[in-house]
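Hi everyone,

Forwarding the result from last night's run.
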Amino acid sequence: MSREKGNLAEDRAVAFLSSLGFLIVERNFYSRFGELDIIASKESVLHFVEVKSGVDYESAIENITPKKLSRLIKTAQIYMSKNAYDGELSFDAVVVTPNHIELLENITL
């Protein structure tokens, strides 16, 4: 996927999360392990959100692999250490398709 398409999907995800009452804390946080697309907060929980897009749900969701989750968790640990965060957290995904957008919470369970 091109960076432009990725940015459009992330913009849609940010708008969607905001409409659900999430406060966007940061976008595109990088570490040596990878990138956190969106960091958001809601009801005292910090959400680390991976944005996946595709022509349909299946093509988008299949890109959330164990390796990707491992990188997401390592990068989140760096973020929390850097920001002295020690509260509740959740690893989530927003799946973006041309006609649908969906939040999947606690994707590491």
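The chain is about 35% helix and 40% strand.

Cheers,
N.
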